[in-house]
């Protein structure tokens, strides 16, 4: 089930950030239907893996081995949530198969959103002809847990870059939302505007349409801590954030704690390490590395 938040929504920047959580997918999947993070009997702990696979076939970092290596990492690390950047559409299907094998007997879901291509007005394409974009994999532990997919193209783009950057969220009713995005690489100012719009405009619309849930945003934001366009200015007050020391980040708020982050070796198959983090839904909020 898919819904796209309107690109032209207006609102005062920062006004709604205190109500937000940015990006994740599954936690309350383990809660009984109708319950919320507030009345959950115990905190829920999940492991999230972020990977940028550079698999378009067009970039200099392409090796043709990143999906194979990503499947090996998923098998070894057994994450509950996976966010994927720079992938081809069929990569989601291939990695979902590995993910389902890891969580045999459980329910897994996947979602994909293509980047736009300004010259053609269609999707950006991988060298193999498939749509190119971002994806999410998630494990749902509650039988019959309902989820919705929300996705779209950021309204602010760098007009010198033909690729139009996209965003993607999977919302589990009453439980958690997981989001990913791959922000502009050619302009940190544009990347920061895209991050602001996702937090200030898109997430409140999702929460109004699907119901509020704690949220985690995980992805290659092409923003750095301490950079000219500082990633810390994107996060809501009180948000928790971890990173890989470069441009991959996990942001969380609204009852999500982040813990125990580490980089995961992708064996030279792509130009980014994996970023693995532990999330706790409910309980005391902390950030520990």
From TrEMBL:
<keyword id="KW-0269">Exonuclease</keyword>
<dbReference type="Pfam" id="PF03372">
    <property type="entry name" value="Exo_endo_phos"/>
</dbReference>
<dbReference type="GO" id="GO:0004527">
    <property type="term" value="F:exonuclease activity"/>
</dbReference>
<feature type="domain" description="Endonuclease/exonuclease/phosphatase">
    <location>
        <begin position="66"/>
        <end position="272"/>
    </location>
</feature>
<keyword id="KW-0732">Signal</keyword>
<keyword id="KW-0540">Nuclease</keyword>
<dbReference type="GO" id="GO:0004519">
    <property type="term" value="F:endonuclease activity"/>
</dbReference>
<keyword id="KW-0255">Endonuclease</keyword>
<dbReference type="InterPro" id="IPR036691">
    <property type="entry name" value="Endo/exonu/phosph_ase_sf"/>
</dbReference>
<feature type="signal peptide">
    <location>
        <begin position="1"/>
        <end position="37"/>
    </location>
</feature>
<keyword id="KW-0378">Hydrolase</keyword>
<dbReference type="InterPro" id="IPR005135">
    <property type="entry name" value="Endo/exonuclease/phosphatase"/>
</dbReference>
<protein>
    <submittedName>
        <fullName>Endonuclease/exonuclease/phosphatase family protein</fullName>
    </submittedName>
</protein>
